[in-house]
Amino acid sequence: MRPFTVVSGVALPFYQANVDTDAIIPSRAIREVSKQGLGRFLFANLRYLPGDEIVHPDFVLNRPEYAEACILIGGSNFGCGSSREHAVWALADYGFRAIIAPGFGAIFFRNCINNGLLPAQVTEAQAQELAEGARKEPIKYQLTVNLKTQEIALPSKKVIPFSIDADAQQQLLRGADPIDMTLETVGEDILAFEQKDRKNRPWLHSNPE
Amino acid sequence: MSATLFAKLWSAHRIASADEKSDFLYIDRIFLHERMGPVALQSLREKGRAIRNPTQVFATIDHIVDTRPGRPNGTRTLGGEKFIDALRESVEQTGIHLYDLDDTRQGIVHLVAAEQGIAHPGLTLVCPDSHTSTLGALGALAWGVGSSDAEHVLSTRVLKVRKPDSMRVSFDGRTAEGVTAKDVVLYMIGSFGASGGKGYAVEFAGEAVQGMGMPERFTLCNMAVEFAAFCGLVSVDETTLDYVGQNRPFTPSEVDFGHWSTDSEAVFDREETLSVRNLTPMVTWGTSPEHALGIQEVIPAVADCRNTSLAQRAMDYMAVRPKQAMQDLRIDAAFLVSCTNTRLEDLRKAAHLLKGRRVNKNIQAVCVPGSTQTRLQAEEEGLDQIFRSAGFEWHEAGCGMCFYAGGDTLAAGSRAISSSNRNFEGRQGPGVRTHLASPLTVAASAVTGRITDPREFL
Questions:
Q1: Which residues of B touch A203 (CB under 8 A)?
Q2: Cα B125–Cα B130–Cα B132 angle in degrees, nearest 5
Q3: With an 8 Å Cβ cutoff, is A190 touching chain B?
Q4: Same domain for A12 and A61?
């Protein structure tokens, strides 16, 4: 997994509450048993006119000034709904590295961490300010997101702090494989739990004692 | 020491601390389906990782399978057969239990997990599907995860989880006839908003819940995720123990599960109470489950909505306007579908209303039983005949119509009333407008061809 340290770039204003994973990628666009190649279906229902062939010119993602966007400014409860990790795979495949929002769907948040996409939580007022800036002067409004200091630098030199749990921050900074990390840190604890549990709850183990 | 059910479940599975807010939890069982399971299993295989404890891993085919009688196309989702084949291939020789399409145990994961006793009180269970919260009704800690976390559990049996706060929502009073768990939960989401349970493990309690059977409790917990809760829970009582004791193959009969309940002195981080005594059937008017209102009511002014820009957008999408009466809305389709409301009791209620009546000639009405076992039981009781005579299509088990994954759909701009859980833009097809309601309201509306209070027929 690609580590996340500092990311700078154009921000896409998508400041709406409750943007669900069906909107991020509709189920009908998931056509391969794969994590790859989903970027072209990102926001498919909004981005294309019916039929997925013709680009909807008014949709923010299709506007040329946002072509290079790698940071998305979302609203509260961003990524709610279905657990489909394809939503995160589509965002990452399209080129997004960070989502800044006042809150995230719980499963979506976990999916972000597992794929090196930063979910940075700010206040409602801060998200609104960022979205407004990105809407007004798209090209000039480059943001720099620093995960280590948990800060977003605005073109005005203003700095907005964001929050993220310590463990999620570490996982993103290291870019390490989460399974390896778990086995490294609690491998022994799992074995100890299972040894005891096989006696207490034998029906929950493949090899009960 | 008094403890909440949630605290008991958490501490019984806590292996180690991850940071000040997160712990590693042991995950007892995992359920996979064809839409999300194959990627996780393939990814494990590519990395040469073994499945730990495979006899505790279960899989079925529900999400994108064709539900039309005989399943003529297998799947109508573009590329769907790849997912079904990949699931079959990737579970082969792993020891994972697979309930394939020819198996009477096939059905929507959350129904199957309960029917087979794969979920029972005191367990942790995850599944790559957000509505896994359904199973919290059994006093289990059950929640939806993504594909990577599913992979993580398959390989390690543990998951790093941020500990949610605890919340109890007590429903005072008994609901009136014609008012169901679906109405209660829509009322709750309407009252506190679609983010109202954010960051909480939500236990449902109170007189109304005590009086509910397991099917209704499953409906409540199913919708907990539409409340943005981490999970839904109901404390174990006689109703739970009766259900669990009904010869469930993966639940041991000799174990006492009675202690998986909240102690009387236990303290929650947040408590809310709602009276449901005067509650009427509920229906949604917009594109979020929080856009819920009493079926006799009129659509609110935008300014009176929780989020005005969202409300305006929802009204435009749904082609509704303030002060319009819900019951004036004509529908094109009525769907009795999804893990929320297709258990045998749901079908019985709808069939009771439909008996001797006919579906309005202008609408398409479809019933998709949630599991094959449910379908077979319903057929044994003759419910399928009632649905068919009324003009409903009677389908095979699966997620069907709850979301659009390709194949046939309604035309853009069509209006459907649905017993499912999400009324998001495009959820049931591009441009399709979805109104969420109980199975009774779906049945009543199917008869009249407009959104209809089922109490007119009871």
A1: 250, 252
A2: 35
A3: yes
A4: yes
